[in-house]
UniProtKB/TrEMBL annotation:
Domain (Tetrahydrofolate dehydrogenase/cyclohydrolase NAD(P)-binding): residue spans on this chain: 139-280
UniProt keyword terms in alphabetical order: Amino-acid biosynthesis, Histidine biosynthesis, Hydrolase, Methionine biosynthesis, Multifunctional enzyme, NADP, One-carbon metabolism, Oxidoreductase, Purine biosynthesis
Function: Catalyzes the oxidation of 5,10-methylenetetrahydrofolate to 5,10-methenyltetrahydrofolate and then the hydrolysis of 5,10-methenyltetrahydrofolate to 10-formyltetrahydrofolate.
Organism: Paenibacillus anaericanus
Pathway it works in: One-carbon metabolism; tetrahydrofolate interconversion
Gene name per UniProt: folD
Keyword Metal-binding attributed: no
Family: Belongs to the tetrahydrofolate dehydrogenase/cyclohydrolase family.
This protein's record includes keyword Oxidoreductase: yes
CDD domains attached to this UniProt entry: NAD_bind_m-THF_DH_Cyclohyd (cd01080)
Name this protein carries in UniProt: Bifunctional protein FolD
Top-level taxon in the UniProt lineage: Bacteria
PANTHER family membership: C-1-TETRAHYDROFOLATE SYNTHASE, CYTOPLASMIC (PTHR48099:SF5), C-1-TETRAHYDROFOLATE SYNTHASE, CYTOPLASMIC-RELATED (PTHR48099)
Assembly information from the UniProt record: Homodimer.
């Protein structure tokens, strides 16, 4: 049996259709959502991500600025730029693309971004608000995972969700969001003993461990929902998820592909966060 495919591409298009209408309305009220993206250095994957964000802004009618800075940029100069963007009225969202060159402390830069313009949801205040369930700008990939599951018509409440991976960007926040949706959540990571015993109990399995094709059919309960957050570049240049899609789809329930699953949702959530930040800043 082959599982139902959850198309992040299609669901993203649906959400962006709604966003486009909302932006038209905001434009007519004199509010143009503005996003600034800062890229330091020439990491090839980051360049692609930044270009895609720029295209999404153009497509939705946002104002956008992309600041491409050399890898030699000092932390001080980057902080000066962040401060300028914090005070710039045409900008409602600021995203500094990670990873940064080694001589720049990521934490210092994230901490410097205005909490209200932190459309990545990485600032400690937004992370804390997520933890205690207060209103905050949510990190884009975890928010995209939840939106994808809901819009695929899957009920999260009461389900056992197992998350593989404990990163600050995906594993930890997606666990909190699943819990907020009333799932019972188990977290696994690279040091988990007997991982398969746990993953085989999952009604919903979210995989964000950063290892190509790590999860095969032996990890999965028949009929389970499988969400693959992995984006691994193979030696042959192809993109692979953390899930061995071909074997898992034979026994799983609804499953996301890579590419075309979680990836498009991340950018869509960034666009949603920028609209939300613009509305909140305008008051
Ligand atoms: N690099 C990889 N993913 C992300 C992300 O979601 N936000 C930022 N700022 N950088 C990233």
């Amino acid at each position: 049996m082959t599982a139902q495919l959850i198309s992040g591409k299609q669901i993203s298009e649906e959400i962006r259709g709604g966003l486009r209408k909302e932006v038209e309305q905001l434009l007519s009220q004199g509010l143009t959502p503005g996003l600034a993206v800062v890229l330091v250095g020439e990491d090839p994957a980051s360049q692609v991500y930044v270009r895609n964000k720029e295209k999404a802004c153009q497509d939705l009618g946002f104002y956008s600025e992309v600041h491409r800075l050399p890898a030699s940029t000092s932390e001080e100069d980057l902080l000066v730029l962040v401060d300028k963007l914090n005070h710039q009225d045409s900008i409602h969202g600021i995203l500094v693309q990670l990873p940064l060159p080694q001589h720049i402390h990521e934490k210092s830069v994230i901490d410097a971004i205005s909490v209200k313009k932190d459309v990545d949801g990485f600032h400690p205040v937004n992370v804390g608000n997520l933890m205690i369930g207060d209103d905050s700008l949510l990190p884009c990939t975890p928010a995209g995972v939840i939106e994808l599951i809901k819009r695929a018509g899957i009920d999260i409440s009461g389900k056992h969700a197992v998350v593989i991976g404990r990163s600050n960007i995906v594993g930890k926040p997606v666990s909190l969001l699943l819990q907020r949706e009333n799932a019972t959540v188990t977290m696994c990571h690279s040091r988990t003993a007997n991982m398969k015993e746990l993953t085989k109990q999952a009604d919903i399995l979210v995989v964000a461990i950063g290892r190509a094709n790590f999860v095969d059919a032996s990890f999965v309960k028949p009929g389970a929902v499988v969400i693959d957050v992995g984006m691994n570049r193979l030696d042959n240049g192809k993109l692979a998820g953390d899930v061995d899609f071909e074997s898992v789809k034979e026994i799983s329930g609804p499953i996301t592909p890579v590419p075309g699953g979680v990836g498009p949702m991340t950018i869509t959530m960034l666009m949603m966060n920028t609209v939300l930040a613009a509305k909140r800043l305008k008051g």
